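debug: dumping io for the single-chain case to check the tokenizer round-trip. Nothing else runs in this session.
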Amino acid sequence: MIRRWLSIALVSVIPVVYVAAFLAMAWIRSRQGHSEQVYPSEIEALAVHREPADPLADARSRGRGVYQHYCQICHGKEGKGDGFNAGNLQPAPRDFTDRKFWQQTSGEWVYYAVAQGGPSVGKSVLMPRWGRTLNERQLRDVIVYIRAFAEPAKAQGK
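debug: decoded output
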């Protein structure tokens, strides 16, 4: 009895394996040469490969989420250093809208300050070491986002 069921199971599994192998080979063949395809525009090529057309805007978008979750409570919604906790902090949190600060400061210094915390750069001991919480990409994305606070607003219309 067991032999009979075993042979029935084996006979029914073989066609399933055959069909799966056939479908896998068809899929592999359809993918061959895909990377050699020529696209009419650079934007379409980026879209097909799921790459952002504007990497800076993509980084700002990711950085915005990190900023809202970790930084906004002290630095404020618009980066002016006037967040909910700002009144309790001495010295006050950095105002990221200050263009002079960005002109005098390198991106690597800001990265180090965010990753290692305020005390690492002679600033507030209340600024945490975000390098323990955030990965490198998140750190760089949030810096791209906070740097945008100091950029002039784009003209409306036209």
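debug: round-trip ok. Residues 2-31 form the longest helix (30 residues).
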